[in-house]
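User: Could you go from structure to sequence for me? I need the amino acid at each position, not a summary. Structure tokens:
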């Protein structure tokens, strides 16, 4: 990993991008990294496009702004493609992870790009099967840590359990843990 990893999350309000961004950062902090995690949204309501950001570094982070040139872009809602510029600032060697049933090749063709690494996972389908709700944030977190090994799967699972046990019913916690694991295994890339 370079000195600092910058991740931009694109989602619709209510899909859990802010929570996933924070959970990733908190897990990295527990592993001894320096972190920042914050959302960007206005007074919009559930369903409105929003962004969240995560920075992870081995050194103190002195930047205090949104992320303009992310290393990784995570798209929790495929319908945002074409509505917001998900590729803005993503370098030619950047990574794009999309929640979709489409293949990475199909997303590449849809975007009309030949560079960047593209990964896809059916996070909504996984969430419906494991949690019973179409909230793709935890599966997308699982896919992200598989594609970019910032922290281990076990560290994320332990942090999730620590943060949410007692706040949610045991079956909800277990469903989310399963969602993370499944997306970690099922993400595809090219």
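Assistant: Here is the amino acid at each position, in order:
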């Amino acid at each position: 990993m370079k000195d600092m990893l910058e991740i931009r999350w694109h989602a619709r309000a209510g899909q859990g991008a802010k929570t996933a961004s924070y959970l990733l950062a908190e897990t990295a902090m527990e592993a001894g990294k320096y972190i920042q995690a914050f959302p960007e949204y206005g007074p919009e309501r559930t369903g409105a496009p929003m962004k969240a950001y995560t920075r992870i570094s081995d050194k103190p982070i002195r930047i205090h702004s949104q992320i303009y040139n992310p290393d990784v872009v995570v798209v929790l809602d495929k319908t945002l493609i074409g509505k917001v510029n998900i590729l803005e600032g993503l370098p030619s060697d950047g990574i794009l992870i999309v929640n979709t049933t489409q293949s990475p090749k199909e997303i590449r063709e849809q975007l009309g790009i030949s560079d960047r690494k593209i990964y896809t996972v059916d996070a909504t389908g996984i969430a419906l099967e494991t949690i019973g709700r179409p909230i793709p944030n935890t599966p997308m977190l699982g896919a992200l840590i598989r594609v970019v090994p910032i922290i281990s799967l076990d560290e994320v699972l332990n942090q999730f359990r620590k943060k949410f046990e007692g706040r949610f019913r045991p079956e909800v916690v277990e469903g989310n843990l399963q969602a993370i694991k499944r997306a970690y295994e099922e993400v595809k890339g090219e």
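One structural detail worth keeping in mind: The radius of gyration is 15 Å.
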